[in-house]
Design a protein that fits this description.
The protein is 42% helix and 20% strand. It is an alpha/beta fold.
């Protein structure tokens, strides 16, 4: 069964526990109730990596964790949200409990999903919907509270509202303190179960992918003597035995071959970040060792991806490991500050730009990833040289070609030291396709 961690405030925990007997039928559940955003961060930090999937009691706690731990997006996850049916049920409950309630004087937080209020009330302006002047996509979740509280108080003090209907149950103390009449709208059991089922679907899909084939090829950029080839084979067998025999190993004429599955590869490389196998192989060998991992839904494609990854690793001329996944995403070199994630089969857009500026499509793909990771569009030749693992002169030539091709321009110059010319800082503008890999 899957292990699922549930991050929830204490108010939402009471609702979730009503479903406990159902969700435990297919998963092992660990509840992690938090009392504040800071407590939530602490709980996640203490428990990250311990679960197959994560459930959050809403989008707010999920966005807080994503700010401090971006890698949370890589783990199967879901958060409880409101469905249109939840809004309709809330309206019905309010109408029954408060027959005299004028819904034109009732405020609702604006739904994240479309809700057909007009069909219910037969009026466009009923009820009042939230229009808080908060740039939700660009404002961090931790910074929502104060402007949202001020907005709620402004609405209440206007005298135009008799009731606030909100999904922010954690604001209860604030509403009570300011004598704001309020009503909590929360996901129904049906909505929460649907969210849980969606998480299980993610986990089932991942489980299928985890069994995908993986093939690795091991070689050296240098010609090996027979004794060195034998030593490399012996070290591979030692590693396999110490690791519990997770590989099938083959000795080919010019290289070594390893077969396993994606789950083993991810565990071995710590989610595609490091390569202890390469470190082990080179520990007692006087020559560099290159490894190319290929992953795909079938062995044939995994084999081809492995050969492409090995070619990239050998091109470095030193010990390095690259991975190519089934969607042509290349990761590498592992165990290096220069590790990048890009497509090794660029799309038509990058192919066209490559011909336009005279830079390889692979370099263009790597530059896109570098800018994405930086969160900006500026680069110096020193920065580019570091990430591409090339000389500063080579990086300068690449930037000059981008400038000549209209894809970059000098934004400003920076004096790096008392001697020499100022370093140019380039603003890069490479049109990015929708298929560009995400880091």
């Amino acid at each position: 069964m899957y292990s699922i961690g549930v991050f929830t405030n204490e108010i939402s925990l009471k609702r979730i526990l009503k479903l406990d007997h159902i969700i435990r039928e297919r998963s092992n559940i660990t509840y992690l109730p938090y009392t504040s955003p800071e407590h939530l961060q602490f709980l996640y930090g203490e428990n990250q990596g311990k679960f197959d999937g994560l459930l959050f009691n809403g989008s707010y706690p999920y966005n807080i964790i994503r700010k401090f731990y971006p890698q949370v997006a890589e783990c199967p996850h879901a958060y409880f949200d409101l469905s249109p049916l939840d809004y309709y049920k809330t309206i019905a409950c309010l109408a029954v409990q408060n027959p005299e309630l004028d819904f034109s004087r009732v405020y609702f937080d604006r739904p994240q999903v479309p809700v057909d209020f007009e069909s219910v009330f037969q009026r466009e302006d009923c009820p009042k919907l939230g229009t808080a002047s908060i740039d939700w996509p660009n404002v961090e979740a931790l910074d929502w509270y104060q402007p949202l509280q001020e907005y709620y108080k402004k609405i209440w003090d206007s005298g135009d509202v008799d009731l606030l209907v909100t999904r922010f149950a954690s604001m209860g103390d604030y509403f009570e303190k300011n004598h704001i009449r309020h009503y909590y709208i929360s996901p129904s059991q049906e909505t929460m179960l649907e969210t849980y089922q969606n998480l299980l679907h993610q986990l089932d899909t991942n489980a299928i992918r985890e069994t995908a084939a993986c093939v690795a090829f091991i070689d050296s950029p240098q010609a090996l003597s027979e004794s060195e080839q034998q030593a490399l084979w012996d070290r591979l067998q030692q590693f396999n035995q110490q690791a519990g025999m997770p590989f099938l190993t083959y000795r080919l004429q010019h290289r070594l071959e390893v077969t396993t599955n994606t789950s083993t590869l991810k565990e071995l490389t710590q989610q595609y970040t490091s390569c202890p196998l390469a470190a082990f192989l080179t520990e007692k060998l006087p020559v560099p060792v290159c490894i190319g991992w290929g992953s795909a839904s079938n062995v044939t494609e995994a084999y081809q991806n492995g050969l492409r990854a090995l070619k990239q690793a050998l091109s470095t001329g030193t010990t390095s490991t690259y991975i190519i996944l089934e969607d042509n995403v290349m990761i590498g070199p592992l165990s290096s500050e220069h590790r990048l994630i890009c497509s090794d089969v660029p799309d038509k857009n990058l192919m066209k730009l490559s011909e336009q500026v005279g830079i390889s499509p692979l370099y263009l793909s790597k530059i896109l990833y570098i800018l994405q990771q930086k969160g900006g569009n500026t680069l110096s030749s020193e920065e580019l040289a570091f990430f591409l693992n090339v000389t500063t002169r080579s990086a300068s030539r690449i930037l000059n070609k981008l400038e000549a091709g209209g894809l970059a321009q000098v934004e400003y110059s920076r004096q790096m030291n008392l001697r020499g010319r100022p370093a140019k800082i380039y603003a890069i503008q490479i049109p990015q396709s929708e298929a560009a890999p995400k880091g």
